[in-house]
Specification:
Helices cover 37% and strands 23% of the residues. With 382 residues, the protein is α/β, with parallel strands linked by helices. The strands form three sheets. The protein has a seven-stranded mixed sheet. It has a four-stranded antiparallel sheet with strand order 2-1-4-5, covered by helices on one side.
Length: 382
């Protein structure tokens, strides 16, 4: 623990003893951005005072979290990390991901292969455990769920649609039987009626007696959506649902998702490479290197996404860079290329209320060029 942090704890301890309230001291004197729970544990103060500080810190932190979750938040993740380890290597799939999704939202997550988007979907789907950070879905702390609680979570909270239909459907069962199967693990009431209602909802009642090899890719995906809805989930997750179908079928599947979102109010998160699909969603989250890098939010005048045909994404969406809790922002490679950045040094300055980023490598180490700005090599970021 650094000397300055120890001094800060000592000052807080003195005030706490004088005030007789560790909770008040933590709230008033401990800056959580620079002094966290590990600093309190490592500090040289009495064990009794340390315990009081830790209890107060935990209480305050929980209060902050409850304020963030509120009643309308479906997904909340903070500084989410996932590390895959082998004997020889470690792969950092998620590197401090931060995201909030409200109940009833329809969100598309896009990114290149290896960006971490499918890993994130597995985390919120309860199929894998995060390595560090915070992850809450529908008010549940996925870090603290036991195995039995996790089974219950997957059974009652989330529904999953996979790209590979072999994971969605049993090939030897009919469409109706496939939809009936998960219902039988639930309330088991009016199974056939509910299954038929779901097939009608996705426009596939006429295929109720068809098996996997008797349906097209788009039809199989519609059946898969009906299966995912069988447990009445609050959150529907779809991993590349249009990855193996043509554009016309992709548009039809998107219409199904929109209908579910509008009529049932279900929260939907889709992971996709399909830029055309992402253009037709109100909120698009871009992932890069295991973190959210930017977001595109639909403009109010284009809120009816069914009317977006013929417009470019630049017309219909506003794009925002994402600033994480440490004040870091990812700058797209194409922007860095545009100002000639080759290495890892840039210059930043504040000019007229704007943060100006310029090429820091130009003339690096040269007294003559130091501090000069290459003509045309600047970008303004508000």
């Amino acid at each position: 623990m650094s000397d300055d942090k120890q001094i800060k704890v000592n000052e807080a301890a003195e005030v706490s003893e004088a005030a007789g309230s560790a909770a008040e001291t933590v709230n008033t004197y401990v800056d959580k951005a620079t002094l966290d729970a590990s600093d309190i544990r490592e500090s040289v103060i009495s064990q009794e005072l340390r315990d009081s500080f830790m209890q107060a810190y935990a209480k305050n932190t929980q209060g902050e979290l409850e304020d963030q979750l509120g009643d309308n938040v479906m997904i909340l993740c903070e500084n989410l990390v996932k590390i895959y380890k082998t004997k020889e290597t470690e792969v950092l799939a998620l590197q401090g991901l931060e995201l909030k999704v409200e109940k009833g939202e329809f969100v598309a997550i896009i990114g290149s292969s290896g960006s971490g988007k499918s890993t994130f979907l597995n985390m919120i789907g309860g199929l894998d455990r995060p390595s560090a950070g915070k992850l809450y879905v529908d008010g549940k702390d996925l870090f603290k769920l036991t195995e039995s609680q996790l089974v219950d979570y997957k059974k009652n909270t989330v529904g999953f649609v996979w790209q590979n239909n072999a994971r969605n459907l049993f090939p030897y069962l009919t469409a109706l039987q496939n939809v009936e199967l998960p219902i039988r693990f639930g309330d088991n009431k009016d199974v056939e009626k509910r299954a038929m209602d779901l097939l009608n909802l996705v426009g596939m009642a006429h295929k109720k007696d068809s098996k996997l090899n008797q349906m097209s890719g788009g039809e199989q995906q519609r059946i898969a959506i009906a299966i995912a809805l069988a447990n009445r989930p609050k959150l529907l997750l779809a991993d590349e649902p249009t990855g193996s179908v043509d554009q016309r079928t992709s548009d039809a599947l998107l219409d199904v998702f929109r209908k579910l979102n509008t009529e049932l109010g279900i929260t939907i998160v889709i992971v996709t490479h399909d830029i055309n699909l992402a253009k037709k969603v109100k909120r698009v989250v871009m992932m890069r290197d295991g973190k959210t890098s930017s977001e595109r939010i639909i403009k109010q005048e284009y809120a009816d996404v069914s009317q977006l045909k013929g417009f470019s994404e630049e017309d219909t969406h506003d794009e925002f860079a994402i600033l994480d809790r440490a004040g870091r922002v990812q700058i797209p490679r194409e922007m860095l290329d545009a100002i000639g950045v080759k290495g890892n040094r840039i210059r930043m300055s504040l000019e007229d209320g704007k943060i100006v980023i310029t090429n820091g490598e130009s003339g690096f180490g040269s007294d003559e060029d130091d501090g000069k700005e290459s003509k045309g090599h600047r970008k303004d970021r508000k």
